[in-house]
Each structure stands twice: as structure tokens, then as C-alpha cells.
């Protein structure tokens, strides 16, 4: 019953057209028969409806859409039960450097680990190097038999394996665009995007990737993987990175995944950096002076000027869009739009670049002040007064608060890798 009550009422409706709100309202009646049904069969809920969600760039190319599978509500209840049991079983078996789909982990903690290693290298006049590895549709390419073999090697019982085999195989999906549907098609590999069980199965599948490197560190967040290392000798670093990059490439190929070599980037970090020449599948990786990792642009000097400038430009563009409709949007709605589409960007992974200078901090405070003056149509009061309207501290104080909270969590062993 607790799992049914925890379901989000606004969740999209599956192909059976049964709304989540109806299931939540009837949880006291449905809980017992659902329990009996879950223990006997899951064959009825192997149908998913795929919605293509636009990501970025031009909307006329299929590659710019992400397929999200909408499953029926009863299936989500069952998956939550299985996910809780799998999480308990694998809690001490997964690498601490798998940073996605786990409690107390986030993009910010993943980036923090990488950035601290790079900062230590710079502070000690070392040379550091990082490679960002890009995968093509990783979640959609998992071979079912190999996933089941890995689950067996971790010690799952035969009954559990039979249940998960039933979950993975004989699945069907169709695409919905507007009121138009494609035919039902069988799925032969991968786990459904948008499912509850898919993320933990993906983490289990790639867990052994974390142990293949010899001289480099590996960090992963979903299908974003980074190799990084530091040292005094550039020749040794390059050799170490090349060996581990080749090992990672072989692991991906043997596990049914494909690398997008054109989008794999390499970068030296620090004032003593040199040209980094790495190859993947007999092709040179692109050497860059900055790369975007998990939504944050990291430059080879670690000053984050490029990231802050890009952030200010993005927020400014969003503000201009809102200003075009200022006469049509009431203050309450403008406030909600500000919190959802502007403040969320300004606070995203902000402690990563918190100590990168007063110039960066001032640029962000100024664009935030502009946004607040638009929201409240107030061009006379001070910035502090505008912050009082939304009951929020300034961005700098918010970053310090977040940093102290994270420090407390790290000191109290919330994070196994910090």
C-alpha cells in the first residue's frame, strides 16, 4: 500500500488508459489482489508506449529525440517492489563510482570527484588528463542474456533470475505521436527507458566496467563515462590513458555497446599541459580546451569563465522570451516560471565552480537581479529586498549553504567515495 500511495498522480497514462490517480484512490482494495497477481505472473504488462521527447538542436532529425517508454501503472507498482529488493541486494556490491540512479548521488557529486582530482593536480604542478566517452543508445543496447548472466554471477537465486528473465523477454512497444500509433514491435534487447527497474539493471550491467582500468580513474553517470588521471610525466600519463581507453573500448564492444568516437573528447588540464594524442578504433580523439560534462563546461584552466558566460547567456535569452509576454503573465506565474526555468539553471551544480572568482559571482548576481526585477516589476528597491520577496538568499550564500550541507553529509559517511 505504501508503494501505491507513493506513485506520482501526474504520471502519464499507459496503453491501458488507467490513470494513476484511480489506482491511488483504490489502494486499500487493490493492494491484496495485486500482491497475488505479482506473485503469479507479469505477462500482462510487457507492453510499453514510446513517446519521442525532443532533446536539442533541430526538431526535424530523429536522432535529436529521446524515446521514453510509458508503462501501465500496475507495472510500475511491481517494478518498485522489485527495485527495492534489488537495491538492498546490490547495495554493497556496486562500485561507489557509479553515480547515477542511486541515493545520495547526483551529477554534482560525480563532477565533484573529477574536479577535485584535477584541482589537486593543478595545485601540485602536476599534469592531468581527462577523456569523455560517449555511448550510442547505451540503455537500448543491453543484451538480455548477458545481463542475466551477470545477475547470476552476483548470486541471484534461480527464482529471481526466472522472474527477471520473464520481465526482460517477450516485451513489445509501439510509438505514439499525437493520436497516431505504430504497430506493436517485439523488443530483443535493452531495458525500457522510463521504467523503474531499468536504471538499477543498467548500473548492475556496467558495474564491472569500473574495475578494468590500471592507471586511470573511471567515473560514470548513466551512459556518460570519464577516464582521468594525473602525474608529473606527460608520456606516462598518455600511455596509461591509451591503455585504459583501449580496455574500455574492448569492454564496451564485448558487452554489446557502441562508442560514438566523433563525440569522444580529450583534454589536458593545468598550466603545464601539452598536446594529448589518443586514439580509439584507429582514429584520433578530438583534443579540446574545454568539454561539457553532465551539463557543466569544464575548461583546461579550471576557471569556469566559459561555463558562467554560457549560463548568463542562456538565462538572458530565457528572460527575453518571458519579457515578450510580460503583459499576459501574472506575477505569481512569473515567479513560478523564474523558479523553474531560471533559478534552477543558476543553482545547478553550483558548488563545483563556487570558488572561481568574484567576477563570475558578480555576473550571476546581476543576471539574477534582472530576472527578479522583471518578475515583480520592481525597478526601485534593492537586490536584497527583491530576494526577500521570494524568501531566498543571494546565489553566493545559496552555494555556501549547499557546500556546507554536502560537507556535513561527507563527514557523516553519506558518500562512500568522498
Automatic annotation (TrEMBL):
InterPro entries: DNA/RNA_pol_sf, RT_dom
Domain of life: Eukaryota
PANTHER family reported for this sequence: REVERSE TRANSCRIPTASE DOMAIN-CONTAINING PROTEIN (PTHR33332)
Organism: Stylophora pistillata (Smooth cauliflower coral)
All copies of domain Reverse transcriptase, residue ranges: 34-298
Keyword entries, A-Z: Nucleotidyltransferase, RNA-directed DNA polymerase, Transferase
Name this protein carries in UniProt: RNA-directed DNA polymerase from mobile element jockey
Coiled-coil regions listed in the entry: none
Sample GO molecular function, one term: RNA-directed DNA polymerase activity
Amino acid at each position: 500500500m505504501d508503494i501505491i500511495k507513493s506513485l506520482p498522480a501526474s504520471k502519464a497514462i499507459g496503453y491501458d488508459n488507467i490513470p494513476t490517480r484511480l489506482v491511488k484512490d483504490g489502494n486499500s482494495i487493490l493492494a491484496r489482489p495485486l500482491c497475488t497477481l505479482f506473485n503469479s505472473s507479469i505477462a500482462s504488462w510487457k507492453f510499453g508506449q514510446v513517446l519521442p521527447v525532443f532533446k536539442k538542436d533541430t526538431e526535424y532529425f530523429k536522432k535529436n529525440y529521446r524515446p521514453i517508454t510509458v508503462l501501465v501503472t500496475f507495472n510500475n507498482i511491481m517494478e518498485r517492489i522489485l527495485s527495492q529488493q534489488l537495491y538492498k541486494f546490490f547495495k554493497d556490491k556496486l562500485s561507489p563510482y557509479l553515480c547515477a540512479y542511486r541515493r545520495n548521488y547526483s551529477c554534482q557529486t560525480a563532477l565533484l570527484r573529477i574536479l577535485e582530482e584535477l584541482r589537486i593536480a593543478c595545485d601540485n604542478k602536476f599534469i592531468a588528463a581527462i577523456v569523455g566517452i560517449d555511448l550510442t543508445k547505451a540503455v537500448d543496447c543491453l543484451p538480455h542474456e548477458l545481463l542475466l548472466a551477470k545477475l547470476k554471477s552476483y548470486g541471484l537465486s534461480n527464482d529471481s533470475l526466472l522472474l527477471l528473465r520473464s520481465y526482460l523477454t517477450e516485451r513489445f512497444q509501439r510509438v505514439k505521436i499525437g493520436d497516431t500509433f505504430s504497430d506493436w514491435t517485439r523488443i530483443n534487447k535493452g531495458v525500457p527507458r522510463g521504467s523503474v527497474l531499468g536504471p538499477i539493471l543498467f548500473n548492475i550491467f556496467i558495474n564491472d566496467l569500473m574495475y578494468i582500468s590500471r592507471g586511470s580513474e573511471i567515473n560514470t553517470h548513466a551512459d556518460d563515462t570519464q577516464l582521468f588521471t594525473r602525474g608529473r610525466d606527460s608520456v606516462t600519463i598518455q600511455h596509461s590513458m591509451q591503455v585504459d581507453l583501449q580496455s574500455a573500448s574492448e569492454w564496451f564492444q564485448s558487452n554489446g555497446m557502441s562508442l560514438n568516437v566523433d563525440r569522444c573528447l580529450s583534454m589536458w588540464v593545468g598550466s603545464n599541459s601539452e598536446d594529448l594524442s589518443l586514439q580509439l578504433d584507429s582514429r584520433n580523439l578530438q583534443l579540446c580546451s574545454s568539454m561539457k560534462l553532465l551539463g557543466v563546461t569544464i575548461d583546461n584552466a579550471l576557471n569556469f569563465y566559459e561555463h558562467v558566460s554560457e549560463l548568463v547567456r542562456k538565462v538572458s535569452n530565457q528572460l527575453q522570451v518571458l519579457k515578450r509576454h510580460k503583459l499576459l503573465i501574472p506575477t505569481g506565474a512569473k515567479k513560478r516560471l523564474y523558479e523553474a526555468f531560471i533559478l534552477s539553471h543558476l543553482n545547478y551544480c553550483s558548488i563545483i565552480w563556487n570558488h572561481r572568482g568574484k567576477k563570475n559571482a558578480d555576473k550571476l548576481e546581476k543576471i539574477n537581479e534582472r530576472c527578479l526585477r522583471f518578475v515583480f516589476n520592481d525597478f526601485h528597491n534593492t537586490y536584497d529586498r527583491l530576494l526577500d520577496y521570494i524568501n531566498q538568499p543571494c546565489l553566493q550564500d545559496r552555494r555556501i549553504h549547499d557546500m556546507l550541507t554536502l560537507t556535513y553529509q561527507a563527514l557523516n559517511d553519506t558518500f562512500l567515495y568522498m
